[in-house]
Design goal:
mainly alpha, two-stranded antiparallel sheet
């Protein structure tokens, strides 16, 4: 909404700042961060009052000595604070007439609603599984496909959602003329990203910290794609209006920083599926928008490690009856190897930063 103050720049010159994406992105980051800082204590109290503690996912999967029973007292569903801060900050600072902003907001809230339902079932009914896996996956694909359909409707010109860009290669390696094939692939990216972040959310501050690095990177790429000169120089798609997504990405970054204040070890609250599904889904959607889906394998390297470790573990056990890792997702493997929780989280943050830098480097090395 504050963007429209720039219309009165002739009356008061400094109001022209509200026309600048970078200024509004900074405002969105600070606003969402401050909202999390201020509302964090209230959120923790309310969640504790309503006994929003979810049963541990490790029950029956690992020896009792590796289960921290103190965490069972920590409330979940803190993702509501993250999502609310992002939404409020975006509405305040973004250009709401830009349809891309509305698509991203709707996607964030839709994934958050699904995650909220999953958390609620776990908490209210003490059901560790939450929403049945197949139903949950079906709704994730429905949300992702709907968002991508609207993106395809909105975006015009030479831009194509069906093109596939690969790091270090200058031109698209493939351009799909099939809407169904494009929809299937891009939806898979969004859903995969959503679930990968969800799997990573197993240690205090791990997922939210890695998300900061990932979303900052994709926010920067969105800014470059929205700038015709930069996009042409780097040979990436020019997407009119994409720079407005930077405001949304900045709001996510600020909310994650603010939430990390309460989620770092020892955590006062967890974000639960309410936050992890929403954050992962929106990261995946930004990757689809800027046509850097394959680059997400690099930028989101920590999330990929977590997801792939689970896939390998399940496949190995079903095919050969043997486990490759002591426990999955892989952060639990290192826990069983003797790493402390702080060591795991900080080392994975370091990896996240390295992966983010490598991902940005691929834009130039073509």
């Amino acid at each position: 909404m504050l963007y429209y103050l720039s219309l009165y720049r002739d009356i008061f010159g400094p109001l022209r700042l509200f026309d600048q994406v970078t200024f509004r992105a900074g405002g969105a980051l600070i606003t969402s961060m401050v909202l999390c800082f201020l509302l964090g204590p209230v959120t923790v109290k309310l969640l504790k009052r309503f006994r929003a503690q979810a049963p541990t996912r490790l029950e029956g999967l690992v020896p009792e000595e590796f289960i921290d029973r103190e965490k069972d007292k920590t409330p979940s569903m803190g993702g509501m604070l993250i999502v609310a801060s992002i939404a409020l900050s975006t509405v305040l600072w973004a250009m709401l007439s830009n349809p891309l902003v509305m698509v991203f907001l709707a996607t964030l809230l839709s994934f958050a609603a699904l995650g909220f339902l999953d958390d609620y079932i776990k908490i209210a009914y003490k059901n560790r599984g939450g929403v049945p896996g197949k139903i949950k996956l079906l709704w994730q694909f429905a949300i992702a496909a709907s968002a991508i359909y609207f993106l395809d409707t909105i975006l015009e010109g030479d831009y194509q959602l069906g093109q596939l860009l690969v790091p270090f290669i200058k031109d698209p390696v493939y351009v799909s003329s099939s809407f169904v094939l494009m929809l299937a692939f891009t939806s898979l990216v969004v859903v995969g990203s959503s679930n990968a972040v969800n799997l990573t959310d197993g240690k205090d501050g791990l997922a939210v910290g890695a998300t900061i690095f990932c979303v900052l990177t994709y926010g920067a790429i969105a800014y470059l794609c929205g700038h015709k000169i930069f996009a042409g120089y780097l040979n990436i798609p020019f997407i009119p209006g994409a720079s407005e997504v930077v405001v949304f990405a900045a709001a996510i970054t600020g909310a994650c920083i603010g939430f990390l204040w309460y989620n770092c070890y020892p955590a006062s609250m967890f974000m639960g599926d309410t936050g992890s599904l929403a954050l992962g889904g929106t990261i995946g959607l930004i990757a689809v928008l800027v046509k850097q889906e394959v680059t997400l394998l690099i930028v989101g390297g920590v999330f990929v490690m977590e997801a792939v470790s689970v896939i390998i573990q399940v496949a190995s056990f079903k095919l050969f009856g043997k486990r490759v890792f002591l426990c999955t997702p892989i952060h639990h493997h290192f826990e069983r190897k003797g790493w402390t929780e702080t060591q795991i989280v900080v080392r994975f943050w370091i990896l996240s930063g390295i992966f983010a830098l490598l991902g940005m480097a691929t834009l130039k090395l073509r």
